[in-house]
């Protein structure tokens, strides 16, 4: 006799398909992964981090304004792991993101998260113990699948604050040099000098990704890789644009009935009246059999006639011979 099976606390129910999670939960998982970083984390660890949370064709964009004007840096997937590692190389011991009042919009193959009140919080251990809160707008685009990885990351920085504990100020209250050092900012728009220098370097490295990839794939010299890339780019520039495919029209064109202007075109009228689609070649027609009497067929010649006309008529005898008539 069959009995129902109840899943208790000691038993786990199997899931046949992975369940979808909220996009904000993916940021929470990324924060936990960043907290599990150690000082011994190498490039392989950062590559695994980027593979888990970013698509293969993902892009990361940072927009902010410095003293010399607005800046905008966009890096590709191969440079994203190094970007996060430079944050910690600049003296940061902890990094996490806080999203407040974010809006989600679902599309066919992606999910967009727009958070106007995003805060990137970094804890600095050197040159002094400081907490930096970088506020701005974060727009994320996730792929709508089981992995739910980030496809585009755009963080626009508006303002930042550097917080120093009061206990440190009290310890160095009698030291003017230390107080003067504590009053200076250790970041620029919430980013360390290591990160800013790397973003400037990415302006040069990003266009060279195609050369590096070709060198790694085909084992070509740098000069040959450059020649090949330039030749392919030139081919794309001079190639004509592809014409859009046009759907064939289904309208049928009406056939116009042509009327004969001559008196001896009875063969063509007979073919039109019967509705036959095949046309008899002119070489198989016998003028003697089609025309019992004499007929006048207008012909044109390059030699002018007696009156100076280029066109004259020729009479056809019953035997099929032409007799010119002017």
UniProtKB/TrEMBL annotation:
Q: Name one Pfam family in it.
A: LIM_bind
What InterPro entries does its record include?
LIM-bd/SEUSS (IPR029005)
Sequence segments annotated as region (Disordered): 240-302, 307-326
Q: Which domain of life is it from?
A: Eukaryota
- Compositionally biased tracts (Low complexity): 258-275
Q: What name goes with this protein?
A: LIM domain binding 2
Q: What is the species listed in this Swiss-Prot or TrEMBL entry?
A: Oryctolagus cuniculus
What is the gene called?
LDB2
């Amino acid at each position: 006799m069959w009995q129902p099976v109840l899943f208790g606390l000691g038993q786990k129910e199997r899931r046949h398909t992975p369940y979808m999670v909220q996009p904000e939960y993916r940021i929470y998982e990324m924060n936990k992964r960043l907290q599990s970083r150690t000082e011994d984390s190498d490039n392989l660890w950062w590559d695994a981090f980027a593979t888990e949370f970013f698509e293969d064709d993902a892009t990361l964009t940072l927009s902010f304004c410095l003293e010399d004007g607005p800046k905008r840096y966009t890096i590709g997937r191969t440079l994203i792991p190094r970007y996060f590692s430079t944050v910690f190389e600049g003296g940061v011991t902890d990094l996490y993101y806080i999203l407040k009042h974010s809006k989600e919009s679902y599309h066919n193959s992606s999910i967009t998260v727009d958070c106007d009140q995003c805060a990137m919080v970094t804890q600095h251990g050197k040159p002094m113990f400081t907490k930096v809160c970088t506020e701005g707008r974060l727009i994320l685009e996730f792929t709508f699948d089981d992995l739910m990885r980030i496809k585009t990351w755009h963080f626009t920085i508006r303002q930042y604050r550097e917080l120093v504990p009061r206990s440190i100020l009290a310890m160095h209250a009698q030291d003017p040099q230390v107080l003067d050092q504590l009053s200076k900012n250790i970041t620029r728009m919430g980013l360390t000098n290591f990160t800013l220098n790397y973003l400037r370097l990415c302006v040069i490295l990003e266009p060279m990704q195609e050369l590096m990839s070709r060198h790694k794939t085909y084992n070509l010299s740098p000069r040959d890789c450059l020649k090949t890339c330039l030749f392919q780019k030139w081919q794309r520039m001079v190639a004509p644009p592809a014409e859009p495919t046009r759907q064939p029209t289904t309208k049928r064109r009406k056939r116009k009935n042509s009327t004969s202007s001559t008196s001896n075109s009875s063969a063509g009228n007979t073919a039109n009246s019967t509705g036959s689609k095949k046309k008899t070649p002119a070489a198989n027609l016998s003028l003697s059999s089609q025309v019992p009497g004499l007929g006048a067929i207008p012909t044109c010649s390059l030699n002018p006639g007696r009156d100076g006309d280029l066109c004259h008529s020729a009479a056809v005898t019953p035997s099929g011979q032409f007799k010119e008539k002017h």
